[in-house]
Design a protein that fits this description.
The chain has 319 residues and is α/β, with parallel strands linked by helices. The chain contains 14 helices and 7 strands. The chain has a single domain, classed as P-loop containing nucleotide triphosphate hydrolases (Rossmann fold). The chain has a 7-stranded mixed beta sheet, sandwiched between helices. It is globular and about 50 Å long. The two termini are 19 Å apart. It binds adenosine-5'-triphosphate and magnesium ion (MG).
């Protein structure tokens, strides 16, 4: 368990608390005027909490990747499940956490299951530990923590709470057994509210699927600003650079232009993997299978295997 190490880290760092609080204040003042800061404040994120600045003590082996984009329908869930299944094929043990009240990942992998466990974790209620909420899935090597339709009410439930609600998920993730999974994939909802920010605080890496269609850059800029706020506001100084994944890439000139523009603007942040448009990928959820099982020889399976290989190289997902 990671709890023991966290406690040691807490004791070791108690003397630096005052300094960290001071730095948080400076960071807050410096960024209060930016739109991203205003948004974070609006969802109650920019509190001055020294507890979120604590090193997690999380083992370096377990990679926690938030899959996020506030734009809806851009293949976040599709990438979590198919990318996760492709990682599982490469013998990485994967845990998917469904943070979306739409329950898309849960329905895909486990059918009509609805629990309130994650709601209680995110609101600091009496919650079973995350590990007790894990269910098996039809994908070998991939487990799931189901979502909850109650997640829509998280912000209301924590409003006025003085402790840092955005760090509750991170603490729960830190309690996961170190030796059971190699990678944790957080499937975020299509908003930049408290749940998505909690995922950014809990994660070490961020994967951002972006549709290869016009205007893809608009929302991306504000998401990148938010990531920067999370890092600079000391909510999660460990958060790595975004990994941008072009999805639904078809043969049109427009798609090529969008991907080229992303490359020009994002440099290293743009992954080399491209996920092509594929009917088979669109069909897989209704069969409750990942693309690697449903159509193992399809272009979609090939693309998600390429993603898994690239993620392993980029973020060193150890087996
Ligand atoms: N490569 C692809 N080819 C064809 N269809 C795709 C592809 N990727 C995703 N889709 C389809 O696009 C739709 C949206 O995908 P998905 O649910 O994964 O997006 P999302 O970002 O998780 O959405 P939300 O924001 O609502 O959570 C789904 O119907 C899915 O099957
Ligand atoms: Mg989704």
């Amino acid at each position: 368990m990671l709890r023991h190490r966290s406690t040691i880290a807490l004791l070791r760092h108690r003397s630096t608390i005052a300094l960290l609080r001071h730095r948080s204040t400076i960071a807050l003042l410096r960024h209060r005027s930016t739109p991203a800061a205003a948004r974070l404040s609006a969802v109650g994120v920019l509190h001055l909490h020294y507890d979120v600045t604590m090193p997690s003590g999380r083992g370096e082996i377990v990679r926690v990747i938030a899959v996020t984009n506030q734009k809806g329908g851009v293949a976040k869930t599709t990438s979590v499940i198919n990318g996760g299944a492709a990682l599982a094929e490469l013998e990485r043990r994967v845990l998917v956490v469904d943070l979306d009240p739409q329950l898309s990942a849960t329905r895909w992998l486990a059918g009509p299951l609805d629990t309130r466990g994650l709601f209680d974790v995110l609101t600091g209620g009496e919650a079973p530990e995350l590990v007790e909420q894990v269910v098996a899935t039809p994908v070998e090597g991939m487990d799931l923590i189901p979502g909850s339709r109650f997640l829509t009410g998280v912000e209301r439930a924590v409003s006025g709470q003085w402790t840092g609600p955005e760090s509750l998920l991170r603490r729960a993730v830190d309690e996961l057994p170190e030796d059971r999974w190699d990678v944790v994939l957080l499937d975020c909802p299509p908003t930049l509210g408290l749940v998505a920010v909690s995922a950014l605080v809990a994660a070490r890496e961020v994967l951002v699927p972006v549709e290869a269609r016009v205007m893809a850059l608009d929302g991306l800029v504000s998401l990148l600003q938010t990531l920067q706020q999370v890092r600079e506001g000391t909510l999660n100084t460990d958060l790595g650079p975004a990994m941008i994944l072009p999805v639904r890439v078809d043969r049109t000139r427009l798609a090529r232009d969008v991907v080229d523009t992303l490359g020009d603007r994002l440099g290293e942040m743009l992954l080399t993997t491209r996920i092509r448009d594929s009917i088979r990928v669109a069909e897989a959820p209704s069969r409750h299978l990942a693309i690697t099982q449903y159509a193992s020889g399809s272009s979609g399976a090939e693309d998600y295997r390429a993603l898994a290989a690239e993620l392993i190289t980029r973020v060193e997902v150890a087996a």
